[in-house]
Amino acid sequence: MNMNDVLFLFLCTLLVWLMTPGLSLFYGGLVQSKNVLNTIMQSMSAIVVVTFAWVILGFSLSFGSGEIFLGGFTYFGLKEVGFNTQADIATHIPLALFMLFQLMFCTIAVSILSGSIAEKMKFIPYLIFVFLWVIIVYSPVAHWVWGGGWIDQLGAIDYAGGTVVHITSGISGLVLAIMIGAGKNFEKRPPHNLIITLIGGILVWVGWYGFNVGSALTFNDIAMTSFVNTVLAASAGSLGWSVMEYFMKKTTSLIGMLSGMLAGLVAITPSAGFVNYMSAIVIAFIGGVSCYFAINYIKVKLQYNDALDAFGIHGIGGIVGAILTGVFQSHKVNNEIVDGMLYSGTLQTVWVQFVAVFVTVIFSGAMTFLIAKTIKLFSALGTDKVEDEKGLDYVVHGESAYFSGEINKFNKRL
User: Where is the major localization of this protein (predicted)?
Assistant: First the structure.
């Protein structure tokens, strides 16, 4: 066991944990003031709910020994998960630390998903959905990619979660949003506090360094490459988005810069440790442009109801990044992988990436539909008229982010 690696991954785990509170603030600033606490609660409650789902079954289904489609019950209830190492996972870090690092990935995936249904989903059905989603959607895909499952055996690669985290959450969020109602809360409302969004965006940005760099599980040349690529990608994504925004709208907005930053980070996540610096810039720039186009044109044309564009940034960004990984991946950068299309001249790597993306999209969408349909048998998914009018903060949580007068009246009536 290498204590330097242990301390390194410990720090990265804390950085990835920071992403969930960061994303809660990012989303919170984008909604109406009467729903800001509910939006934040949807992300923060993910920390609680996902922890139990991951501990009980999620980690075992993801990384336990099993078949090519699903891990077994080796680590059910964290059995045999402690300071010991596991040769199939990493011989230089405690298994419990690796488990916590992966828990943070699962948590941020749920937080991302919540952006699609902000201001329009009942809170308790949402929590039930989250618990089931971790076990039924996230864990199988994590096993396919990182637990020795069929995607790994196919030869498709995902460095830090472009497929596992971003595509699953983006697609699932979109399906859930559509099921709640295409016309519900569809009108575009201006963000109520972009300063909160900025603070949240900064926390997500910083946390992403732990997200990508920590995926090397040690600070070596691959980790250093992924660190540089992540820094470059955030700027390239912002540049791509801002260039599109300027040419199309003659403005360069703060929310555009932050959205582009996220798009670039999402796009580089599948390949951060597999591509050179210039490739990272190209991938992230394309990611920023693609996400801008998806949100400002495709979404408007198709009229799908993705509240805070979780699908537009994370779903689209993850798909673009995963496919482009097959184009730009380089054996020279990482000797554990084969050259991509740009260096080999063949379509094989792009094809396997496409297959992995396609199946993940279909699986995530179908399973999300089944989970939501089942919950819908017992409870409505969407908010009711009173919640829409008075706000979810007041009705569901009995508190307000900014004004106390109405809450005091509410408490007195009780």
Answer: membrane
